[in-house]
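User: Some background: our group keeps a shared notebook of sequences we're curious about, and every so often someone picks one and asks for a predicted structure to add to the entry. Today it's my turn. The entry only has the sequence so far, pasted here. Could you supply the structure so I can complete it?
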Amino acid sequence: MQTYLHDPKNKPVVFMLSAAIGCLIAAFFAEVFLLALPKGGTQSICLTIDTSGSMAGDLMLEMQQAAKEFVDQRSGDNLAITIFSSDARIVEPFTKDKHKLKETIGALMAFGATNFEAALRVSTEVLEKANDSSKTLLIFTDGENTVGDASQAIQTAERLRQQGIRIFAVAALDADVMYLAGLTGDRNRVIFAQDGKLREAFDQVERMIATTIGGGSASYTVAFIATSGWTFFAALGIALALVAIQNYFMKKPLLPQHQMVWVAAGAAVAGIASGFVAQTAMTVLSAIYLGEVGRVLAWSVLGCLLAFGMVFVIPNLDKKKALQFGALGGFLGSLGFLFVTAAIGDTGGRLIGAFILGACIGLLVAIVETFYRNVWLMVIYDPRNFAQVNLGSQAVTIGSGNGDTVPIPGIGAKAGTFLVVGDKVQYTDIHGTQSLVPGNRVTVGKVELVICSKDVPFSPSKFYPMKMSRAKELMNQS
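Assistant: Of course. Here's the predicted structure to add to the notebook entry:
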C-alpha cells in the first residue's frame, strides 16, 4: 500500500480518494453545524391538508399522526391549518396552542375532489394575517388536481414565493410531484412519502424548514450562514486532504502549522463565496423553477477556488487550467450531489454527495498537474522511493529548510534552485549556474534529480536497471 501511494503515476487516484474522504469527514461536522444553528426565531407555518375522498382510511390516520408530531416539534411557532377538497377553508387560524391544533387535526374527515386553486387562495388569506416575518406554507396531498384552475394555483404560489414565503410539500400515493415542484419552486422541497413513511417525510420537512442548504431556512441570514457554513466545512475537508497528500508525495510533514492557518482562511473564503452564490442564485432563480442552478453554480465556484488555491501548494500548477478544471470538477460533483440528494434525501444525500464532490475536484486537480505540464523534476531518494515536481517560471528549491520545495536532509536551506528559462532548465547552487535539458541529472548527496519532459519521460528501470531489479526482489520478499 505504501509503495502504491509513493508512486507518482498513481497520484490522480490518490488525490481523488483523499479529497473524497476529506470532504465526507468534513460533511459530518457540517451536519452537526446545521443542527446547532438557531431556528431563526418564531415562524408562521400554515399546514394546508388535502382532505379529498382518496384520503379516507389508513392514509388519513397516518397523516393525522404525522401532522400531530410535526406540531409538537414546532416549539414557539405560530401554526394555522387549512384544508382543501372540492373547495378549501380555514379550520384553525394561527395559534401556539398545540392541544387545540392537534385536536383539530384529529377531527379531519375525507370527502370530495382535489382543488389546488382553492387551497392556495385560502392559504394566502391565512398567511396574510400572520405577524411573523418568516412565513412557510406546507402542503400535504395524495393526488392530482381534479377541479378548479390548476394554473391559477401555480401563479398564486409564485406570488407567495416572491413575497419571501417558503413553500414545501409532502406528496403521497398518486400526488403529482412535478406539479407540486411548480408550486414550491424547487423539486427538493417536494418530499415524496412512500407507503407507511409519512412520519419520516414530515420529519424531513421539519428539518428543511429549520435550516435547508441552498435556501429553505427561516430567514435569508440564517440560510446564508447555513449554506456558507456547510460549504466552508466541505472546502476545508477537501483542501486539508489535498494539501496533506501533496505534502506526502513530496516527503514533507503532512500538515505543518503555518499551512493549516492559511488553508483554513482559504476554505473560509471559498465557503463564503460559494454560499453567497448559492443563496443569491436560489433566491433569484427559484421563481422560474431553476433553483437547482444555484447549487450547481455554487459547487462550480467552490471547485474553481479550491483548485486555484492548490496553485500555492503545487509548484508551477497551470493557473488557467486549474481554474477551468476546478470549476469542471465542482460542476460534475454538483450533478452527483443533486442526484443522490434527490434520490436519498436530506442528510444521507448530502454526505454521499460530499464524497462525490470531493472525488471530482481532487481528480481534476491532479489531472491538471499530471497531464498539463511540459518539464518536471523526478526526485529519486532510492529505487523504491520517488517524488516529482513540475518545473516552470516558479523557482523550485532543494534543501533542508521548511520552505524548500524538495526536502533533502543533510544539506543547507535553499541549497539549489531549478528554474525554466526559455527551453532550458537553469540549476543554480553554490558552484554556480548550469543549463540542463530533459534527460540530464544532478546528484545531491544520496539523491538523484532527473530532468524529465513529455518527449523524455523518466523510466526507473532504464535509468537504474540494477537497483530496480534489487527493488523488485525486496518487494517480493516483503
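Suggested note for the entry: The CA atoms of residues 15 and 115 lie 54 Å apart. The domain at 375-477 is CATH 2.60.200.20 (Tumour Suppressor Smad4).
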